[in-house]
Each structure stands twice: as C-alpha cells, then as structure tokens.
Amino acid sequence: MARNIHRSPVMADVARLAGVSHQTVSRVLNDHPNVRPETRDRVIAAIEGLGYRRNSTARALVTKQTNTLGVVAFDTTLYGPASTLYGIERAARDAGYFVSIVSLRELTRDDLAEALDHLGRQQVDGLVVIAPQSAVAVALSQMPQPVPVVTVEGDADVGLPVVNVDQRRGGVLVTEHLLRLGHRTVWHVSGPQDWLEAEGRIEGWRETLLAAGAPVPEVLTGDWSPRSGYRCGQRLAGMADLTAVFVANDQMALGVLRALDEARVRVPDDVSVVGFDDIPESEFFAPPLTTVSQDFSEVGRKAIELLLDALAEEHEPARPPGEPPGGPAEDTPPPPHVVVQPHLVVRRSSGPPRAA
Amino acid sequence: MARNIHRSPVMADVARLAGVSHQTVSRVLNDHPNVRPETRDRVIAAIEGLGYRRNSTARALVTKQTNTLGVVAFDTTLYGPASTLYGIERAARDAGYFVSIVSLRELTRDDLAEALDHLGRQQVDGLVVIAPQSAVAVALSQMPQPVPVVTVEGDADVGLPVVNVDQRRGGVLVTEHLLRLGHRTVWHVSGPQDWLEAEGRIEGWRETLLAAGAPVPEVLTGDWSPRSGYRCGQRLAGMADLTAVFVANDQMALGVLRALDEARVRVPDDVSVVGFDDIPESEFFAPPLTTVSQDFSEVGRKAIELLLDALAEEHEPARPPGEPPGGPAEDTPPPPHVVVQPHLVVRRSSGPPRAA
DNA sequence: AAAGCTGATGTGAACGCTAACAATTAACGC
DNA sequence: GCGTTAATTGTTAGCGTTCACATCAGCTTT
C-alpha cells in the first residue's frame, strides 16, 4: 500500500530516483562544482519528475540563515511609508529574500521593542526600521541588535546606517522658490516637531529665510493630517501680511487650501501654497499643488542595498590577517549614510505675490 | 577557556542549568500539563537567567508549521489595499503569526504564480490573496494550493473563501442618495471593468436606476487614478443634462471635481459628485466629498479569522467517525463568504439639482 | 610501478527542536 | 500489602538539510 502518497518528496527521494546519494542532490542544488554533468542532469531530471522543492526550514536550521528580512514600519496607509515599503519589498525579493513586516500601532518605545522581539523570534537575517522620530531612532540604537539594522528616515547621529531623503534641502528648494517669486517671507505649517522629517524641513526653510534676510514667522504645527492643515489654514487666513505658505506635506496642504478657499483667499493670486511629498492627488488639487517630490522607491532600494552590504560583511569579516580579534580598537568606519535628493515640482498653487 | 561565549543558548543549556532534561524544558515552553510547579519555576528561572529564546526554525522543522502567513497584495500605495494590509498584519500578529508580504508588480497570472512560488518556498502556513480582478481570482483557483487560501475582494464564484465589501450595496447607497435628492438620473465614472470592485459598483448603480425607472447613461471608464477622473470629468462637463455623478473612487472624484471646476461647473449647485472609499483627504476636497466608507481593517481582520479557521480545521479534520476517508463524497460546505457592509458619508459635494 | 594527486561520490554526524515511548515515583483502593 | 493507575521525568529517534570527512577511481609524476 502506498501510504505515503501525499507526503511531499525530500532529498532522499530524489537521490533514490537518480541513483545517487542525498549529498549529491544537495551539491546540485547548491551549484557546487565537482559534479559530473551527466550526474547533474540525472538529478535535475529526478527533481523535476518528483516536483521536489527544497525544504527551506531544514536548510535554515543548519545554515542559520532564514533568508528573511524584517521591516518595521509605521502608518503604512500613508503614501510615503507605503511607497517606501513597496520599494523595500521589491528590492528584497529581487535579492532572493523574504520580507516579514510589522506595522507599529504607535511610535513608542514599547511598540518598537515588541516589534523587534516579534521579528527576533522569527530569526530574521536583517532589519529595516522606518524610524521617523528621533526618539525612535535613539530607542532603537539602545536595544540589542543581534542582526544588522538599517534605518530609514532615521537619525544619522545615532550610530546606525541610515537612508533618508534630504529634508533640509527640500525646505530650501521650496523657500527659495517662493522668495525668488518675490515674496517677502514665507510662513510654515510644519509636521509634529519630534519627527525628523518635520525638523529637517523647518531647518531648510528657516536657514533660507535667514540667509535672505527675510523675517522668520512663527511656525504653525500640525500633525500631518488634512484636518490639522485645515485648522492651521484657518489661522493663516486671518493674517494680514500673508502671501506665501510652505506646508510640510501635501495632505495638510489640502487642508490649508480648503481653509483659504472658505475664507475667500485665492490661491495663488492672494497666497501661494507649496506642499511636500507629491502624492498622486496633489496634481489635481484646486489649484494643482506645487510640491516636493521624493523618490520613495529609491529610498527603499538603497536601504536594502545597505542591508545586504552589512549582511555580506558579516560573513566575510575582512579582518586584516595577524590582527587579534577583539584586539586593538580598529578605527571602524562610520555607519553609512545615504541621502536621496528631492526635487521641486512647480504647479499652479505658487506664483508671484499680488502687490509685488 | 569559555570558547562558546557568543553562542546563543539552546534548550540543552537551559536543561543543564535547571537540572532537568531538555524535554522537560520543551514541556514548560509548550505549556504541557504534568510538570511539577516547582520544576517549572526552576526551568523558567534558567530560561530567564540565560536569556534563552526558542529556535523557531528547529521547531518549524519538526512541527511542520512555520507560524507564518503569506499575503499577496497589489498596489499597496493606494489607501484601500494599504489599509487592508494593515488590518491583516495586525490581526495575524495578534494571533501569533508572522506576516510575509509580496506585492505584485502587475496583476497578471505570471506575477501571481511567481508570488505564490515565492511564498511557497518559505513554507507559509496559509495565504491571503488580495485578488481584485476576476481573472486573478480564477487564475488563483487553478493553481495548486498546498495551504489554505483566503481571498480578499475576490470572486465569490470561484470556489475559494472570500472576504469583501459589498460593492453592489455601495453603488445602491450612492445612487439612491442622489435620486432621493431629486436627480433624474446619475452618471457613473467607473473603475477598470475587469476589476470586481468596479463591476459591483456599476451593478448597484444600474440596478438602482432601473428600479427607479431612471435612464441609464453610458458608463465612463477610468483607471482609478486622479488623472483618468480628470479626463472623464472633462467629458462630463460638456453634457447638457448632467446633474449628478457617481465616481467609483475618491481619487478619480478629485479629478472630476478639478475638471468641473475648470469648466466653471459648480459642485454641488450645478452638479452633485459622490465618490467611493472615504480616503482621509476626501473630507477636505473642494467641496468636501460625499462618499462611501469601507471598513478596510475589518476586512483584514475577517480575512485572518477565516484563514485561522481553515488552519484549525486542517488539524482536526472533524471527520464523522465511521466514515472512510476519501469515501463517499460528503457534501462539503461551500467556502465561507464574509461580506462587510459599507456606509454612506454625506458631505457637501451632493445636493438637490438646481432646477428641481 | 609505487606514490601522490585530483575529481566525483558516499557516509555519518550535526543543527535544535518535538513526539513517542519508557521509566520512575507517588498515590490509591481493596 | 501489592497490584493498578496517574503523575512526572527521562531516553531515543527523528524532522530534512548541510558540513566534514572518508572513499575510490583514474591520472599524473618520478
């Protein structure tokens, strides 16, 4: 009686069919040299005949590599994180890795610790953490890291490899654009101040104003949501000398546009509005939004690139021979920091001030 | 010399420290009964003392369960899929599962096959496939399924468990809303016709019009993007008798609003516009958009619920005793089909027609 | 022609865990 | 008091790979 009819084939089955040992099958599978072509063909035929697929669990047990990368993300319903995640997933899969994801409910130390614990249980080979708050990056750096970690939009000063978009530069681009159009100064609706992205955009904006000798207005702070933008917009609508606003993301910019519209302030005739992110919708706002475009997929790709580098380094330590391990403190190179440049997309929401 | 200083502890280490056998450690870890409380405490102390963590790979090898669920998604940069994914991830993690994700580049049979192959290699215990096109659902149903599968937004007639939002009902809600406001008929900008969601919304819309004896205008077809909505909006702006439009998603609705605005058609005074999805932005469109809200997280949760049920069933087949396995064709229950109800969110983009 | 090498293959152990069974002890009933 | 049973623990054997090493032919080398 063939009672094993439903058991999926293992290496030994393939070996038997091909008339070789299981080890030879393993050699074929792992592209070892020193297998006679004829034997190789026979093994491959047996593999295909049986529909054999290597058991990755058993393999992981002995190689101690799961071929899985963990990704810790936050609020993946937003366009930016979602795009970054997509870029990461794609690059990782192209490199032959599985991607295990954990979305943080909240950007807290506990949630982060839980996420790392979860992925740790799964024995991921490496980790990408989207850490947009300085506190998160710091917390991360203080946790034990049994595997290589790359952060995205994280804090470069925290001692971990980082990939991020040059937020400061984005702020500069926007502010210069508006000043060049003839505006005396530019107001700013920022994201939450503990977010690194918000901070960078503020910096770029402030520096540019200062460099131009323009007055630096008080910063209005939102929380990235359209609603918070709307509230800030209502406050802005009451300002007499307002001619230009830089809003830290497109969603809030939408809220600002709405508030200005309700207050009968015309954009761009009365006030210029510039956003940040270039979400697919922003081209169709009323009016189409001038904004800053970030290549999120590129960020994801770079993050995986860095992680794979770290993984490779882990396996060939490349320690200079004769150097006793753990000996004199070699000057280890600083962790890599990849910066992706954003660019300005000019649309109709920005123009010269009315009474120039 | 302690040469193993960096080797992470295994069960045997814990056993040695606690003065028991490794099997007893295993029993403690798996909450087996019949372990003396005192022994249990000693083991737990040893585990904590050593910082021991069970090796999930070794465990998976023997239990043949990876505790990982695979998710196949498409275009996760969109709000809907991203939210669904989030719901899935959250529910799966709460249930103690890891989540491995694959985003399809394209909605093709080949891409799907590759994704399933990828996840198959990883030996996932179960699969959630977001299959918004009928063709995808069909292709999926024809592929070998070594593990339980649940589809989301898939085709209920294809023989696989499904969780979806009642799109038809959504179309009905919108159309009834507009007719009740006094519109003679309602135009429709649909999604791509091979998408099940697009189809369901069209159906609900058409049925409602027919039931009310209202004329059924030609359907304009978009591709979910704001740009396609804009193009359709331009065409609509030229229609003389237009008073109401149902747009199949909020992004396209934004495009329609933009086109109407450019054509000096006022919303809702001249034309009412209703969307679908209730993305966070839609409340701040000009004007705020009446739309249909779908509980994507609920969809994700339900999908995992179904999958876990299937997984549990797999292990306790619950076959009536005396019934020979593979014997007479028992009338297997139809695959479960969970439907989540959407609801209408009325905002300012819809109102009574001008010349009522 | 003996020794040495190289290429091709096989054998046994190990990875760290759980399942099945065996063994030991304590408790119980008549 | 002794078999019977239940509770607790240990022993052994895998799970399906890869790694380290052994083997064995067929060549070269001197």
Automatic annotation (TrEMBL), chains A, B:
Gene Ontology molecular function, alphabetical: DNA binding
Domain HTH lacI-type, chain residue ranges per copy: 9-63
Entries under PROSITE patterns matching the protein: HTH_LACI_1, HTH_LACI_2
Stretches the record annotates as Disordered: 311-356
Keyword annotations of the record: DNA-binding, Transcription, Transcription regulation
CDD domains from the UniProt entry: HTH_LacI (cd01392), PBP1_LacI (cd01574)
One Pfam short name: Peripla_BP_3
SUPFAM superfamilies: lambda repressor-like DNA-binding domains, Periplasmic binding protein-like I
Protein name: LacI family DNA-binding transcriptional regulator
Origin species: Sphaerisporangium corydalis
Higher taxonomy: Bacteria, Bacillati, Actinomycetota, Actinomycetes, Streptosporangiales
